[in-house]
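<context>
A single protein, sequence plus fold
<entry> Chain with its tokenised backbone below
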Amino acid sequence: MAIDAESDLESHPGEGMLLKNPRSSVATEDIRLWRYLYGIPPSVEIRVPTAHERVDWVVPGWVAIYELMLKDEMRFPIPRLLRDVCDHYEIAPSQLMPNAWRVLMSLESLSVRNGVDCDLGEVLFSYYLKEHDKDKGRFKLIARVGRAPIVTCLRTNDRGWKDRFIFVRGDLVWGSRGPGGVSSHWKATSRDFNRALPSGLIAEERTRQLLDIAVGERDYRVALSEENLRASRLWDFVEERPGTAALPVDFVLTLLRLRYSIHIVFGGSDLRPLTVEELSLAEDLMSGRINIPSAKEAKLMMKGAASSSQREKKRKRVVLADTRVVDDPEAYKLSKAEAASAAVGKSQSTGSGELSPGKAKKAKGKSTEGGDSVVVPMPSDGSVYSDPSFVKDATEALLLSADRKRLSEIGPVQSAEWSCTHTYQALMGWTYLRSQITAQEKRNVDLTASNATLWKSNEKLAVQLEELRSKNEELSSNNTKLVEQNARILGQLDEVKEELQVEKATSASLRSEVESITAEAQAIAVNAVLSARAELMAEFKKGEHSSWDPDEEIRTWEKRQTLMAGGEVSEEEEVEEAALAAESPKQKEDDVAPEQAEQCEPDAGAEVVVPDLEDAGASTEDIARD
């Protein structure tokens, strides 16, 4: 526990959820710079954490805020959706991971600017809260499976932000709605992370409206630009500073230095006069009282810190570093006397309670190295299991003077309670690790068996793969042959097409010849019929034929047609036909002449009828068609 001199408040550790819990690297000199860079109004009080306070400590009345939240354009009062999520899960805002802040602030900016209502129900319809796998106590906002994330282009490489935090308080921190159920310190939540609110079709429709916004506008960098933040009323209490929007910190400070130089040289005749706050800050920057590293220098510093950390891990000695840091770092440095007392221990090899002279000298030499670490000398030939008493004297060196002083201030009862709590936590951690190791060993056995099975399956698959490869080659060769055969068939088809075209042309010419021959034959037949008809008519007029028997002519024509069709004629018909043929035409005429003369002799006043030529022509056409 600690008491802050300014606020006269008692702070104490929280539930101890974080395994890696660095102290704050923010200095008192940074506060004025933060107020200027991030537009923190004077009504918001800022408290720099003491050397022993951590972000998950309980500091009554104060709320922890990371600098990265301010760099991501979060301003006071804390945005509505961020407050509602923390209120629903009863956690502190600093327990959310950076992308969770960005998503919630971007959703509020998009909803206000596009006129779409977005409340806690819409947030939990598309996202759910999940505890970080490694950093227990920190929570991520994850898009639900099967639903598209509304905010896009989120970052995944946030580094070096966990030691940059402060404590804030004031009415403007939460605005007119107040903190509600938001926790001011870190604690575990009992809420169901994956459960959405029963908002139904309304949340689905509003989410669809948000997803209809162009993807470029849903980029968190666009949604959290200064122009969009001011349009969404998230920056209502932030003073406008023209020309500094979306600029890096070192650019803003360089611009401030330049304006200060113009103010000094020209007597404040620049376009926008410096305020009292800007003038004081610029004087400190110019005088060096506030030293801000450039982006390149900060990158080199981080690289050097990483290299130093790697070298520390490679040291081949047992070092117990005290992770707790007090206000006075000098209190952690061991004097030569304390180092010598830490080197006292029992040794099994000598049977005495002291180390050998060489080892004691070596321990004394090491005790003066480093400022905030203690070397615990352990005899290489000792054994804790056979004689654990020699560890007692060596471990007494771990109780540093600053810790002794602090423990004496809080009293033995509270020290014992604090020790029991942390010892029980460590015991629970060891028990959990032991169960996990047993389970891991069992999993290793199962994995080994599975690995052997997989190897056998792999061999079978390799054989099958080789067979498939050979089949593939065979199919490829067959495919090549089929392609060649197909090409030959196509060539033959082209030749047949050409021959068909030639035959078609020949058939067309033959058809035209047949048509012409048919026309000529019809013309000849018509001419022959007309000629025969004309001759017959002429003979009739001359009196060469006084009469004829039409029935007899028809029977003769029918018999001839029967013979031409391949039919047979009876013997009587043949005899009669032969007799008729033997009888001369003249005799026929003589036999029937008197009769016909009587029948055909015209009256004196009768007119001779000549057959009509049109009827003759019609009969001729019928004969031609037949």
Summary: The two ends are 134 Å apart (CA to CA).
